[in-house]
Amino acid sequence: MLQNTHSLVLYGLIMFIAGLGIPVMAALNGGLGNKLQNTPLAATILLFVGLCIALIYLFTSSGVPKTLFVAGTPWYFYLGGCFVMFYILTITWVAPKFGIANAITFVLLGQLVAMTIIDHFGFFGVKQFALDLKKLTGLVLMIAGVVLVLSKPQP
After folding, report:
1. Where are the transmembrane segments (predicted)?
2. Do residue 86 and residue 138 come from a single domain?
């Protein structure tokens, strides 16, 4: 049990740090898009830098892959990059105009809805976690938090 607790803390910490990076990435890439006056170019630069890092990680940890496709893998498993690209393009374009907090708050709202549906139905082969009253209450409270973050301060 102790190892499991350590793993949960470690995984939670790693994902918390990843979460910290999302608004930073949005601010940096939105700023780059504004400076360049070219959202697609800013997104391309971001993805190119990310690709370089991913390739370095791949080659140093696993070597050259023997195959890109494994028999029986559903074709839609290869579409994750489409969602990354959509996110990067939209956050680069929208965040400087709408505000980092507003943009990320709506991204978070979308993540809350999607994660609930994916976990409840076990889509894409992930472990299924049924939506129960406790989780639904937590989801409603998180959505309420999102609404509160978006509310304008009263004078």
Report:
1. 6-28, 40-60, 75-96, 103-124, 136-151
2. no
